[in-house]
Amino acid sequence: MDRGDALEWSDLGDPTGERPATDGSPMTAATETWPRRRTASETGELPLLLLSEIALTAVTLAGVLGLRRAFLGTEWFPALAVQVVAAHGLAAFLRRRGVSIAGSVALVLAAGFIAVTWVHAGDTTAFGIPTGDTFEAIATALNDAGTMFSEVKAPTDALPGFLIASSAAVWLGVALSDWAAFRIGASLESTLPSATLFLLTAVLGADVDRVLVATVWVVTVLAFLLLRRADRLGHTATWVGDRKRTGPRSMLILGGALMAVAVLVAAVIGPRLPGAESEAILSLTEIGDDGPGTRVTVSPLVDIRSRLVEQADVEVFSVRSPVRSYWRLTSLDRFDGRIWSSNGSYGSADGDLDDGVPVASERVTFEQSFSINALAQIWLPAAYEPQSVATAVDLRYDEVSGTIIVDTDIPTSDNTDYRVTSALPQHDAAALATASSEIPRDIADRYLGLPDDFPVSVQSLAQEITGDATSTYDAALRLQDFFQDNFTYDLDVGAGHNEEAIEQFVLELRRGYCEQFAGSFAAMARSIGIPARVAVGFTPGNSNAVDPTLYRVRGEHAHAWPEVFLGEYGWVMFEPTPGRGAPFTEQYTGVPEAQVSSGGNGATATTAVSPPSTEPTTSPDTSQPGRDTVNPDDLESGGIDGAETEPAPNPWFGRVAWGAGILVAAVALYLLTVLVVTALRRQRRRRAAVEPGQQVALAWDDSLGAVRRAGVPIRDALTQTEVAERVAQRLPGAAEPMEILAMAVQATAYAPVAPSTDDGADARVHASEVERVAKASMSRTERLRTRFDPRRLRDG
User: Fold this and answer.
1) Which of 11, 479, 615, 738 is 20 to 30 A from 514, alpha carbon to alpha carbon?
2) Which residues face 558 on adjacent strands?
3) What pLDDT band is residue 22 in, cutting at 50, 70 and 90?
């Protein structure tokens, strides 16, 4: 195409906007007007509005997913998810139909009320229409939830009142977010309803899947904001040629790549940064924990030594039971490196109690009658696992830990009388050896946690002890026997079970009492992948020949022991403390029943009525506990049988290496993304430019990208002629081809005759010349830098 052709081709034709037909006669509206507005499917543009609406729905769903940290299980999620989708769908429909803002919000909220009643109180409606019973049921559920809110700790049961409040928040939040995002264009502000829900559960919720939940929420928010930006830019920016179609798409590719790298770095490196696992300076979840509705107390392990030493003769409680048992108070599932603790979620303990974990073994059911005298704690002892409880006072129950406590308005359980029916498992060693090694996710999340700096020497010792174990049960048994056979019970050892105390206790001292034995066993089990927790309670206590079913339990009977999760057999107790042995467990632990008894009042440990098939074959050991042990002085370097124990490596080296490796991988991923995406986009655009007019537009786009990379500032608002003039000033060598390309683009847009094949080929030649001149004007460093410039994703 020469200059003359370009000028003739630039003829604007009829100013009425009607394009002349090829035979010279004007085209009428009955035939075709030109230019005609084409649909997104015809132009190849992305349906950004629809994608933005879907992304905003995902943002709300991510906020609802955050309730995973507040509610137990996942059964509640589908009902809320359906309401999220319905609310966003209705809001989008009303907006697209031109309904006013006030009308749309009113209709969404009205529909939300109907949906809440159908989902959460449907059985009280009449043919779907709310009745007086419906309002009463909702009010009662909300009132109960308000009362429970001050008493429970997350994660808790998804009570109806909690779900009703969550559903109402969903519908209100959707009405506000749709209005902000698509009515007034406040994209960031439209994420605030979901952010409020997300932050609320982050503050009040438990430490459950926090990285996963946060990552999902951040990804959905960033994706929505990116789509909204691309959509608005597509409608407001001045695009040349097919840039209206490719511009937003390029932005999405670039933004998506940067977002993926940022989220990957934050999700992987963030949790490994120094101090990431440290306790908060100000824990928002602890604010107000001294109020009357909370159940946060000192770990019962702290109280054990004082009971064993200072309150040995104090009668804590009495219990009448036909079967001897360890009287269990609670179990502790968290070890933060300093202390074992728990934070249960308690519901009503009225009547039958739910089992925490199904147990495959046969169980003996029996009733106990307790009278608490001087326990001075909120817990109520019971044989594990309690099935029902009856008393004149209000009690609470946590099925996960199998714990019964007094209600929040009762300071301690002292002077409380109650009856408990329990089902005592009768485990068999051969059966436990075949237990499934599969660990449910909720069990793994809660009962495998250890501090990052847990001593490697202790973990190595646990691996050495259990190295040739044939099953999880066998590994737990080997850990138990290690303590039973190589340690001495000694109350003169100071209290403590933190990481340093565990390391000193296991590798050097090898003397202590139940606190150290139970805590060390559980931590070592977790270090080799066995879910474990620490149970706290009392041994059976003393009975006499006059009434062998009445047991008097004193401070000296305070005890702690570990429990291990063994697949379908649930939580199985073991006994690592020398001189202690639980009733009816010898058949799988190999430890005879035994407890301490000072005999200060003439009482001794006696045998009570028991199931015929589970009667112990050995007599209870009532002597002061103690066994022959390995002399710690005979051990070299704290190991066993002369084995050297390597010092624990510095954990920070590994963390820094991890961080550096991830950063290098992220940079490499970015560079590869730019190269690959740029090459693929150029190839795709070349194949798509089959018509001469498309080839001219592509040549212009390539030229613009080249001169911009060479440092020529080109604003989208400039006309083609102004762009050519700007390039002539900065790159004189590209002045002529750029001017020819500018006229070609104008001819493509306005000339009555479409460009020819030769015109498209000529445009490509002129674009190549512009690119050559632009590249020659740059230094080698500049060319290398611009080669990996993220703007290449936009320019192709």
Assistant:
1) 615
2) 538
3) very low
d(CA 175, CA 417): 53
Q: What DSSP character marks residue 524?
A: H
Secondary structure of residue 385 in the 3-state scheme: coil
One-letter identity of residue 114? I
Residue 420 is inside which H or E element, if any? Answer: strand 417-425
3-class secondary structure for 671-736? HHHHHHHHHHHHHHHHHHCCCHHHHHHHHHHHHHHHHHHCCCCCCCCCCHHHHHHHHHHHCHHHHH
Place of tokens 């697209």: 96
Find out whether 562 and 521 touch, Cβ atoms under 8 Å: yes
* Rounded alpha-carbon distances, angstroms, from residue 635 to 484, 507, 757: 17, 9, 90
Instruction: Say which residue the tokens 């003769």 belong to.
Output: 313
**DSSP code at position 270:** G
Omega cis (within 30) before 189 = no
Q: What is the pLDDT of residue 567?
A: 92
pLDDT of residue 372: 92
Q: What is the DSSP letter of 76?
A: T
Q: How high does pLDDT run on average in the chain?
A: 77
Q: Is 222 left (phi over 0), alpha (psi -120 to 50) or beta?
A: alpha
**CB-CB contact of 743 with 766 (8 Å):** no
Contact assessment for residue 329 and residue 379, using Cβ atoms and an 8 Å cutoff: yes
**Is cis: bond before 440, omega within 30 of 0?**
no
Query: How high is the pLDDT of residue 657?
Result: 62
Residue 345 pLDDT greater than 50, yes or no = yes
Cα-only R_g, the chain? 37
321 within 8 A of 367, measured Cβ to Cβ: yes
Question: Which carries the bigger pLDDT value, residue 748 or residue 657?
Answer: 748
Q: Is the pLDDT of residue 590 over 60?
A: yes
Amino acid at 255: G
Establish whether the linkage from the previous residue to 732 is cis, with ω within 30° of 0: no
Given a contact cutoff of 8 angstroms between Cβ atoms, the answer to whether 277 and 453 are in contact is no
**Residues facing residue 397 across a β-bridge:** 347, 404
Model pLDDT, residue 59: 92
What gap in Å lies between CA 70 and CA 149, rounded to an integer? 11
DSSP 153-178: -SSB---HHHHHHHHHHHHHHHHHHH
Q: How many CB atoms lie within 10 A of CB 196?
A: 13
User: What does the DSSP 8-state code read for residue 300?
Assistant: T
Give me the amino acid identity at 380.
Answer: L
C-beta of residue 21 within 8 angstroms of C-beta of residue 27? yes
Q: Report the alpha-carbon angle 128-134-137, nearest 5.
A: 140
Percent pLDDT > 90 in the chain is 23
pLDDT band at 618 (very low <50, low <70, confident <90, very high): very low
User: In this predicted structure, what is the pLDDT of residue 185?
Assistant: 81
CA 377 – CA 371 distance, rounded (Å)? 14
| Distance in angstroms (rounded) separating the CA atoms of residues 789 and 786 | 5
- Confidence tier at 599 by pLDDT (50, 70, 90): very low
Beta bridge partners of 699: none
Question: Distance of CA 796 to CAs 86, 249, 764, 789, Å?
Answer: 39, 11, 15, 11
Is the model's pTM score more than 0.70?
Answer: no
pLDDT tens digits, 469-507: 999 999 999 999 999 999 999 887 766 555 677 888 899
**Can you tell me whether residue 643 is helix, strand or coil?**
coil
Res 29: pLDDT: 34
Is the separation of the CB atoms in 487 and 520 below 8 Å? no
φ/ψ of residue 275, rounded to 5: 85, 0
Condensed to tens digits (0 to 9), the pLDDT of residues 62-97 reads 988 888 888 876 778 888 999 999 999 999 999 988
Hey, which residues does 552 pair with through a beta bridge? 318, 542
d(CA 69, CA 564): 25
Q: Give every CB contact of residue 604 below 8 A, 6+ residues apart in sequence.
A: 542, 544, 597, 622
